[in-house]
Amino acid sequence: MINGVDHIVILAPEIDMGVAVYAALLGRAPDWRAVSDAGVATALFQLGNTALELVAPSGHGSSAEHLRARIAEEGPGLKSLAFRSADLAGDHRALSRLDLAPTAIEDALSEDMNREARRTWRSFRTPPERTASIRWFFVEPLEGALEPAEVPLGHVHALDHLVINTPNPDRAMALYGAKLGLRLALDRSAPEWGVRLIFFRTGGLTVEIAHRLGQAEDAAGPDNFWGLTWRVGDIEAAHDRLAAKGFNISDVRTGRRAGTRVFTVRDGTMGVPTLFISGVAD
Asked: Where are the domains of the chain?
């Protein structure tokens, strides 16, 4: 049973650089840092409803070289979406019946490089060719699950929504609704914005599927993992904090959702379109 988004993955060219960018952006230090023997460095920012994981090559192991090749080909940015499961074996059986070809369930262990702590979990993935080119992982946390630290109102405490662009909204409805079982919260065409928006809710955040009106539907075209909207308690304080850090940001403006205020981070996010929002319930 999928009960939320466990984490999203951003691929960074170098882990210290990535940590510096996202610690400044989110206004919080990473909760976990580790380096694997295969040459993968990770940093995890645990938020109230999900986590952001930065992944970067480290050294010259096989995995490090694979990551460098991916960065050279694709660039840094959003790469994977990991769903949290309360019944990983059951979800594996269900997705197998739905022809999503999940890989075998594997056990995993991570040890924090700065303190004596360990986390364990089980996971599997589905091939991106079965999920419209979006990389899906499924995770069941076991030992050492992280709890989010409290932060001031102008700092990020949650992810409001993530955006996936699609050339085939009917396929997206089938994937995220019928097959994955996420709750459909909204399906609306908005000609004033030139887009059809499909919102799925899980674990206190929204997976937003966007299709541009007038775009020819492409039954086989890939989906695109696009951007993130971070939630803060005080939009003005967040705006002042990021301006002081030197981020290129827009003015604060009224959001599309009633009662919300937003601003855009124009660049400096490793290729991830980024919005900040306040005035929404958790």
From this structure: 2-141, 158-278
Q: What angle do CA 137, 139, 143 make, to 5 degrees?
A: 150
Q: What's at 17, amino acid-wise?
A: M
Using only the alpha carbons of the chain, give its radius of gyration.
Answer: 19
In angstroms, what CA-CA distances link 53 with 15, 171, 184, 212? 11, 28, 26, 29
Query: How would CATH label the architecture of 2-141?
Result: Roll (3.10)
Report whether CATH 3.10.180.10 matches the domain 158-278: yes
Whether this model's pTM surpasses 0.90: yes
Note the pLDDT tens digit of each residue in 102-143: 999 999 999 999 888 999 999 999 999 999 999 999 999 999
Torsion over CA of 124, 129, 132 and 135, rounded to 10 degrees?
30
pLDDT of residue 219: 78
Do 158-278 and 2-141 have the same topology in CATH?
yes
Residue 76 pLDDT exceeds 80: yes
Contacts of 281 (CB under 8 A, 6+ apart): none
